[in-house]
Amino acid sequence: MTLHFTSQGWRKAVAIAASAATMVSMFAVGASAATAAESADKVVVSQVANQDGKGYLEVDGKPFFMHGVQFFGEWQIYGSDAAPIPTDQKNPILPQDWLENGFEKTKAAGFDTIQIELAWNQIQPTSEGQYDWTLLDKYVQWAKKYDLKIDVVWWGLNGCGGGIRENTVHGYMADIPDYLEADKYWGFKNNGGENEVPYLPNDSDPTRAADADYLFGEERKAVTAMFNHLAKVDTTHQTILFQIWNELNWNGWKDGHNKTQKDEWLRLADELGKAVKDSDYQVATRLNYRGNSIDSRSVLDKYENIDFSGPDAYTTSVSSMANIVKDTAAKSDIAYIPETFSGKSNPTEITATILANGGFVDFWQLNESWASKDYALYGVPDDGYAKYTDWKLGTIPTMPEPAQKLARFNNSINKMGEEIAVALPENMAAFNADTDNAVKGYQGTKTIAGKDVTFSSGADSDAVGFALRDADTGAFLLASNSTGASTFNLGAGAVASVGSFDDDGNWTGEPREVAADGTISIGEGELIRVIDTSALSGALDAGKSLKEADYTPESWKTYAQERKDAEQVLADPNATQNQLNDAAKALSAAQDALVPSGKLTVVDPASLTVIAGTAGDAIQGNAPKQVNVRAKASNPVRKDVTWNWQNVDTSPLANAGGRVSVPGTVALDDGTTLDATLTVYATAEHETNIAGSYKNIWDDGHDSTDVGATFDGNTTNKGYTTWKSSGYSNFSLRPDYADAHNISKVKVYFYKDGGRASWSKNVSVNVWSVTDNAWVPFGTTVDLSSYTQDGDAPVAEFTVDKPIEAKGVEIHGDADSYVSLSEVEIYAKDGTALPASDASLADLRVDGSSVEGFDADKTGYDVTIAHDAEYPLVQGLSRDTAAKVTIDQASEANGGKATVVVTPADGNAEAAKTYAVTFARASKPGNGGDPTGPTDPSNPSNPSNPSNPDGNGGKNGGADQNADGKKRDELSRTGSAIAMAAAAMMVAATAGVAALMIRRRSGR
């Protein structure tokens, strides 16, 4: 432990230590003596950790869910300088033990953390070296009683961006001990003319520097003593965080003196952080600040004793909050929002948004009775202060409806707090939080780790839902503030339970019924855990029709072992989602690796999509090197292919929409060859709006509302504004990006604010060119003088002939009035081709052979089968292997009609094409032509490898495509294969073919 004393301070500390035995028990004996009396092994209670790029707080070695509310209890006792409690409402001034109400009410609101503001003079009221731990000890005891963690918000020599002795927003009391109020420490006047701002240790006057050294040294001693004391009394580690001062605000000081001294203030903040780190009770330290246009990354990189920082983000816009969280994640080791409105209409929506974007949040505050209801979780009724002064233990007041919704949400998400702490944004989703206020009758689907998750709030409910995929187990966790009417749906094959995790992370739950369509109900305060068996069940079902005789012994042996292992995993009631998924992947891989024992007969189509104008050698270089080859309808095997470009005219590929066909040859092991075909498509280059992925936003210092709202994708709301009472000037707004982008287009949406023409006279755009290492013009200046107040707000668009590689975009406008923007869109080319729009088949196969008379433009076919044959397998192979192919096999239920629907890769459903194969049965010999159905419709059989109902595996030449349109790693066919020798002979005789595999396909 390092103590900081001047010689005078050291002598005083020694004198105090010598007389410690005679002091009242409530006082400690100074930092040096306290160290000897309370010394214990140093313990690291909390620290910043990182998993897969996400920062979070670790407490006692475990991920901790930072989610709480701030309690300013002593304000209720004393009031504030700005608005003291009227004498007739003090009733009288409340006793200190009344503060326990804050802990009880915080727990009742569903929080696990309470932010406690602690002023220096609350632990050191009057004298050097004399500490009173009474209040601190009570805080620790109450936190333990109510199972809460404490986040200490320290009020010392700086608050709200300036040094404070009598802070007008904090209370009657000074935040410093009485013995430090001498004017020699406080040399700069505030707006009221009082010497309020302290001299700093780097003062050029040696005397002032020495006094300042002593002043700040005393604060460090107090912090060290406090945490050494906690090492003795807080043995259960309720205290987990230390905020250094409040809103240091190094980006916008209250006065000119402090603004010039921001580096010195940050150094002093780091010294306080070091006092914590050098103590016997070490916790993570942090800063908070107002506004979001601040470079906290450079501060954190420079000062090692400040662990993380975050903005006090007072906004009710969920889109703006999402941007703030993303921005904070780039600037700090934890994406943390220390303060936001607790009394607005949408704290649940704000919470869900922050969590889903990888952030954490604390609300300000639990109780507020003089600022406004916006800051009061428990509300501010007409009787004002009496609401809180009448609080009694054992009685939980009725919270406003938004707070009740938040409490229900808290009680549900707290049960997966550790999982939320480490989960990446792509593994989480919030539902009914896309708008600022949740709506009744909401239903929405979001994709999490490749899985579609649907949440329905209920017709008369505006519940918010939250879903998370546990990266460790693969299971999905579902939460909501529902009162019972809400549901989730993860599709068929889901197995659900309702329960909780124990302290060791083990799940304990009771089964929750899953409807046939996958719907799962969720009640108040419940946490639902879901695992999905459909992939593994489907993979096992798909293999039931496979015959050992159709494949080589070595490949079958591997497949049979994987199948046995998969059956054991499926039967294990304790299997995790990852185990199920791994078993399904292994089984599918083994099935894909099966080698047909028969002769290979047919090659699947291949395709490639390129950006229009791509050079010929680049096209040839990207052509697939292998293609799928099959023995009739067997599993595909990969074979090398040689493409013959010699007589191919590639000129159509110079323009988007062009298409060419390239012939190829596949050489088989027996010396024979098979023909192959590659289709090449030319499309435009993909363009993405990257505006919201900014690293920093710089503006011109105007009193803007919410800069982040200008990049949230909403072109109708109000974002950046230069409003102020007078002295309007030109505006400038600049988002910077961590990586260079090929900027191709910029769109600036102005906002008609208050019915006024709130836009600049013109607007121009510059970009920071990586090539030129300088700002260069982007497009031409747009004149807005023709847009009048009576019309709509203008939208200015900027384009260039060739994209410019840039890392920053600056929007500038000349103005003589205030300006309001709604949105800025910045588009960049990403070097990938847009999907093609081709919905044609390249081949339509029946039992592995092309249907007679196939033509890509012909969509209907009739095929006759034996009177007692099961329906053959139909396979559709799209010309563009990235297209989506969905097949409904023929059955008695659909009249023997198989349909193949091809949706182009660009997703244009209107351009989809449907092919149909209608099977008619031949007359039964000797019955006068009466048709008959299959002998056993309940026993479908399908020895092929159905796979991929959603299409063909993208731009890899069809490597993942199966001819029946199913995806090979999501097998879903059912039935068993029974090929009776006598039946086969009869069919051969009847149909006049050498051999016919008889199959039936039944949908799952």
From TrEMBL:
Residues 1-33 form the signal peptide. Residues 921-972 are annotated as: Disordered. One of its GO terms (biological process) is carbohydrate metabolic process. Residues 932-950 have a biased composition (Low complexity). The chain crosses the membrane at residues 977-998. Keywords: Glycosidase, Hydrolase, Membrane, Signal, Transmembrane, Transmembrane helix. GO terms for cellular component: beta-galactosidase complex. GO terms for molecular function: beta-galactosidase activity. It comes from the Bacteria. Residues 963-972 have a biased composition (Basic and acidic residues). Residues 97-151 form the Glycoside hydrolase family 42 N-terminal domain. Gene3D superfamilies: Designed single chain three-helix bundle, Galactose-binding domain-like, Glycosidases. This is Glycoside hydrolase. It comes from Bifidobacterium stellenboschense.
